[in-house]
Design a protein that fits this description.
- The chain has about 375 residues and is an alpha/beta fold.
- The chain has two domains: about 5-45 and about 75-205 and about 360-374, Rossmann fold (3-Layer(aba) Sandwich), CATH 3.40.50.2000; about 220-360, Rossmann fold, CATH 3.40.50.
- It has helices at about 15-30, 50-65, 75-80, 80-90, 100-110, 160-170, 185-195, 210-215, 235-250, 275-285, 295-305, 320-325, 350-374, and strands spanning about 5-10, 35-40, 95, 115, 145-150, 175-180, 200, 225-230, 250-255, 290, 310, 335.
- The strands form two sheets. Strands 3-2-1-4-5-6-7 form a seven-stranded parallel β-sheet. A five-stranded parallel β-sheet has the order 9-8-10-11-12.
- Strand 1 (about 5-10), helix 1 and strand 2 (about 35-40) form a beta-alpha-beta unit.
- Helix 8 (about 210-215) packs across helix 10.
- The longest helix has 22 residues, at about 350-374.
- It starts with a strand and ends with a helix.
């Protein structure tokens, strides 16, 4: 009888990278012969349903009746309908679990053999529904094997309170094995948690091949020129992209909503609808060049062997970019200051034969970590 594995990652829905890393890890485990369920841990909801509905109706009133140009409420299921459709089709999810008690009850009922925490920034408190849950505080059954795969702190800066550090240190020492996504995570585990056995592994998206993702999007289309995926937009970045476009003589394309949900520039819900994830995958595969400030955007540029530039995203954490690019000998693709960038570097080719050799070795190491610890 094959093992039943629970994957605990950040809530899925709004972020392409979060969804596709979960898809990748699930597929790797399914291909190894395991049964897999992703735990849908949502933020604790302190409000009653009545208060939530009242808030929504109030927002709808101000937006639609008074015709406010600054929507305070966007219908989640509409804005992220394409992402939710992808998740429904390709990822096996648990019911929504909104508390530690709900998590514990679900695990008691389902009889999982193993639980894997990861990947993505699951160990970054400000992104977590409950940071202690992601160190498995709700599991009391000693027979369940606890594993972290490519867990990320997101940044080299320590963002935990003293109390969180103490509690998480106690919990992490109950894990059977630990792996982290960034090289900086290895000394963090030793210094903060007294776990000197943490391993450095690949993000799960890199465990699959480009062909695995092509199966999700069908036949190749014509090249899309300069494909961009920018999470933190600014005039500086727009000007930089336009200058690169002119230098490379490539048209610009993207697969993003007209406006991000936190930027209230339109009263039209359709302006905020996130396009299908399949179009995002296709943009990387069928482009001539990529510019991105996204970690997973960087990875999919590499997976599809594209010439690319990664714009260092300091607020979201640059260590993620630095770690993988250093491993693959691609540090020169990371741009810290667009105003000081030498555009002649746009014509520098990437030796993907050398990159792929390094990636093959890292992939073998990462897969062995999973195989040896489940």
């Amino acid at each position: 009888m094959k093992n039943k594995i629970a994957l605990l990652t950040l809530p899925l829905g709004h972020n392409y990278g979060g969804i596709i890393q979960n898809y990748a890890l699930q597929k790797v485990l399914l291909d190894l012969g395991y049964e897999v369920v992703t735990i849908d841990r949502r933020a604790d909801n302190p409000h009653s349903k009545i208060k939530i509905l009242a808030s929504k109706y109030k927002s709808s009133f101000f937006r639609n009746i008074i015709q406010s140009k600054n929507p305070k409420y966007l219908p989640y299921n509409t804005v992220f309908k394409h992402n939710l459709s992808f998740i429904k089709e390709y990822i096996k999810l648990s019911p929504e679990l909104e508390s530690t008690e709900a998590l514990a009850a679900y695990f008691n009922k389902e009889n999982f053999d193993d639980v894997i925490v990861g990947s993505d920034q699951v160990w970054r408190p400000k992104y977590s529904p409950d940071i202690l849950n992601f160190y498995l505080d709700f599991i009391k059954e000693p027979s369940i094997s606890k594993l972290a795969y490519a867990a990320s702190f997101g940044t080299e800066e320590w963002e935990y309170t003293n109390e969180q550090t103490k509690k998480c240190s106690e919990l992490i020492n109950q894990f059977n094995a630990i792996s982290v996504r960034e090289d900086s995570g290895v000394p963090i585990c030793g210094d903060k948690f007294n776990r000197d056995d943490a391993k450095h592994v690949l993000d799960p998206t890199l465990l699959l091949e480009a062909e695995d993702y092509s199966q999700l999007i069908g036949e190749k289309q014509k090249k899309s020129g300069l494909f961009t995926y920018v999470l933190d937009d600014s005039k500086l970045k727009k000007d930089f992209i336009n200058n690169c476009s002119e230098y490379l003589n490539l048209g610009v394309s993207t697969n993003q909503a007209k406006y991000q949900t936190h930027i209230y520039k339109s009263g039209k819900t359709e302006d905020y609808i996130v396009p299908p994830l399949e179009g995002w995958l296709q943009g990387f595969r069928d482009s001539d060049f990529v510019i991105t400030d996204s970690f997973h955007g960087t990875l999919f540029s590499i997976i599809n062997q594209k010439p690319f530039l990664s714009l260092a995203n300091m607020d979201r954490g640059a260590s993620r970019f630095e770690s993988i690019l250093k491993q693959l000998g691609l540090e020169d693709r990371l741009v810290y200051d667009v105003e000081k960038f030498d555009k002649s570097k746009l014509k520098k080719e990437i030796d993907y034969a050398a990159v792929n050799l390094k990636l093959k070795s890292l992939k073998e190491h990462s897969l062995n970590f999973l195989k040896n610890n489940i």
